[in-house]
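Quick bug: Nephrocystin 3-like N-terminal domain-containing protein output formatted oddly.
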Amino acid sequence: MDASRRTGCLLNTRTDVLKFVVDWVNDTRSEQKMLWIHGLAGSGKSALSTTIANTFRDSGQLGAFLFFDRDVTERSNPTTVIRTLAHQLGTSDSRIGATIRTAIERNPNITISPLTRQFRKLVLEPLSEIEFNAPTIVVVLDALDKCGTADEREALLTVLTEDFIDLPLVLRIIITSRAELDISNAFEPRHYIFACELDITSPRNSDDIWSYFRHRMIFIRTKRRHLRPGTDWPGNEIFQQLVQRASGLWVSTASKFIDGHDPRKRLDIILSGDATSGAEAALDALYKTALDSDEEDFVTDFRVIIGTILLAHVPLSSATIDALLRLPEDRPCMNTISLLGCLLQQSPAVRVLHPSFADFLTTEERCGRGIWYFDQFAFHHHLVCRCLDRMNIFLERNMCNMTLAADLSSESLPGDISYSCAFWIDHLYAVQDNIPPIVNRLRDFLSRHLLHWFEAMSILRKSRETISHLSRLSDWISMHSPNETLLMALARDASSFAQLFAPSIEAHPLLVYISALPFTPTSTTLYRTYHRPDIFSSISGGFRRTWSPMLLVLTGHTDNVTSVAISSDGTHIASGSADGTIRVWNSTTGAEVEEIRIGHGVGSVEFYPDGRRIVLGFDDDTVRVWDAMLVTEVLTMVGHTGAVRLVSVSSD
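Here's what came back:
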């Protein structure tokens, strides 16, 4: 994470908050290891966190600074947080780095282990082995609310609230976020977490806003000096009005809005709006001012382009947006985006600068005008149509002109095609109304380009993801179009095709046609739709007529598999073998999640009801309990005088 472009608080502002944080960090008597600073969108949490990180970097106490952004994939994935934290801690102190390297050598599969195990092996245990000279080491996590969805960060919140308490007292964790329900519920009951709400209504905060506006106006005045705004522009009275209207928020966004072609005119526009008292109302007033246009062409382009930016699952470049929406060359998306510089980041990918603007556009009561409101479900309908249209035009057999001997690492697809292939089913799954037009497009796409899509997903190195995607597709069809029997049959065949052939398809895209299709059961809708004997190979006499009830083949053990168990929630499979290992597998994709090397032949495997622990019977006459997440032995039971061939766990 490169923090070099992040801006902190203006000099001599937020001094009261910064002093409080420094005092809290250096109070070694306190057993509260975590400080949670929360506040509204636009209250300056990110600038504050950057200043906090810089302060402790200067004092030699900063161990790590992680900042999250829901619009940047690599900065919004909860599963990478512990690894990134360990990396930064390791680079901040060579002793920590050495212990972490040793931990990785001992646990080569640690990066794909559950977060709890990653934390124990990469952070807790290495830090616990070191005697620190510094009184405190500071870790800063900014914008936790932007780290995935509530469901996606559930495991991370569990680690933060239940495992971080075991860290040495020398560690101090500072987290900033909005007070989202899941974060509040996780943090507020914990006595060892100090919750602090940013006060945006205090006189000191108003003074800081005054200072910030004065600083920005001097910059704008110098930048636009050819307009001759005057040496004291805009004057103390105007500063006071701006401070009152800000209500503690939107100062950065307002400053960017004023810094336009004619700053004086833009300032008048802000000040001429209705005065507002609430913080959220102040933001809404600014956004309504920035969008004050009745020009029909602008409104039309705005709705299509901004809707795509809001609902895209990853940020898209302007070129990708143009291609996905098939915008005319004389009206590219940048023609509209450039008019909204105070609201949108324009490069390298286009995204909303502040989450409060997205909230404004997707809340009908706040927009005030229907032309600015985005019904997310309706716009998913629009986006899935655009994705299907682009794939219909581009996808074909061997679309990259590959050979079986080609180096696949250099193969890629255009941005709009990559996005369409990866996310069209996600957009489809959100569609709830106006179903028939979608079904017609879906029927056409699956009957012409299903195998081409498998090829494309292999080029994108996402073959395993097709399994869960197609399961959702089948669910959507059964919910919204259950009478489409042929469409349903093709979707179910595609799901079986993905599960059975994903390992070979991910090895090379062309194996979709060379290996997978010929071995597809001959009476299936997929085979009858796609297999042409004059083009594709055939199995003499036919391979089989229907899909085998066997869904997955799991390979990896080097000796007989002696026992298999499935977790109570059905998400994982555990297998024991005479080769002295236990392996845990994802039951949907067949991917190996964990390998536990025991050294003795395994006679029996069984999950605890909580799915976290596994009880094992061994050839050395013992029964042992392992924590599957931490991959550590927690209990050994002796007494048998022969190999244990069967174990069982009571429901309680």
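Actually, after a second look the formatting is fine. The chain has a mean pLDDT of 85. Closing.
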